[in-house]
Specification:
- By secondary structure, this protein is of the alpha/beta class.
- The protein has one domain (2-49, 73-208): Rossmann fold, CATH 3.40.50.2020.
- 31% of the residues lie in helices and 33% in strands.
- The protein is built from 6 helices and 14 strands.
- It has helices spanning 13-23, 29-47, 87-93, 140-151, 166-175, 203-208, and strands at 2-4, 7-9, 53-59, 64-70, 73-80, 98-99, 102-106, 113-118, 127-132, 135-136, 156-164, 180-186, 189-190, 196-197.
- The strands form 3 sheets. Strands 1, 2, 5, 6, 7, 8, 9, 10, 11 and 12 form a 10-stranded mixed beta sheet that branches.
- The protein is globular and about 60 Å long.
- The protein binds 1-O-pyrophosphono-5-O-phosphono-alpha-D-ribofuranose and uracil.
Length: 211
């Protein structure tokens, strides 16, 4: 991954090819969902390479040895609704993770985020949060979710997304410079409706077959 100021952009050829297929207007909802899941698996793998581990003693069929296990409590935080399509593949890779749902919808004319489902979970231990949302456009939705998590005293936050705009990345760096962003690609710009260009259209609608 290419890193600059807590922003990691994938250079992986598999991610590049899957992202190209995802963008295409001819991609069906079924294939779109499959590609979102596959891209999420690859990005979760890249975004978790620095998780803390602790030694664990195991017996192989041949002898005793010291292995390792993840030492951090991890919570996956999908932003409803488009982030839902990323949950299963993240959970497959991190099966012990909890899932905290947060609903944020951006108002189509003002482009401001509207929080519609925020239910504080029981947080027993300090947690690493991985926010999932395919699109980082103006950055309003992601910034709002980071603020919610921080208000719950969660400060180790990373984000996994598929496409970002330069404007959205800048907004996050201004509002939450401590949050690490793992993104498949940063596109050219936002259009007058707040859509990422060239982008892929509306990630929620394309996953769930709505318009
Ligand atoms: C999309 C996307 C992000 C948000 C990004 O969701 O999944 O959550 O827009 O835009 P922003 O960076 O300008 O805030 P949307 O609000 O369309 O809701 P949906 O997931 O229900 O489709
Ligand atoms: N939300 C999307 O789904 N797509 C965009 O391009 C911008 C916001």
């Amino acid at each position: 991954m290419n890193e600059l100021n807590n922003v990691y952009v994938s250079q992986h050829p598999l991610i590049g090819e899957k992202l190209s297929n995802l963008r295409s207007i001819t991609t069906s909802s079924k294939l779109f969902r499959d590609l979102v899941a596959e891209l999420t698996s690859l990005l979760v793998y890249e975004a978790t390479s620095d998780l803390k581990t602790t030694p664990v003693s195991i017996d192989t069929p041949l002898e005793k040895m010291t292995g390792s296990k993840i030492a951090e409590e991890i919570s996956i935080v999908p932003i409803l609704r488009a982030g839902l399509g990323m949950v299963d593949s993240a959970l497959n890779i991190i099966p012990s993770a909890k899932v905290w749902h947060i609903g944020v919808k951006r108002d189509e004319s003002s482009l401001k985020p509207i929080e519609y489902y925020v239910n504080k979970p029981n947080i027993a231990k300090i947690t690493t949060c991985i926010i999932l949302d395919p699109m980082l456009a103006t950055g309003g939705s992601l910034s709002a979710v980071c603020s919610i998590l921080k208000s719950w005293d969660v400060h180790n936050i990373r984000y996994i997304g598929l496409l970002a705009s330069p404007e959205g990345v800048q907004r996050l760096q201004d509002d939450h410079p401590d949050v690490k962003l793992f993104i498949a690609n940063i596109d050219s710009h936002l259009d007058e409706n707040g859509y990422i260009v060239p982008g892929l259209g509306d990630a929620g609608d394309r996953q769930f077959g709505t318009t």
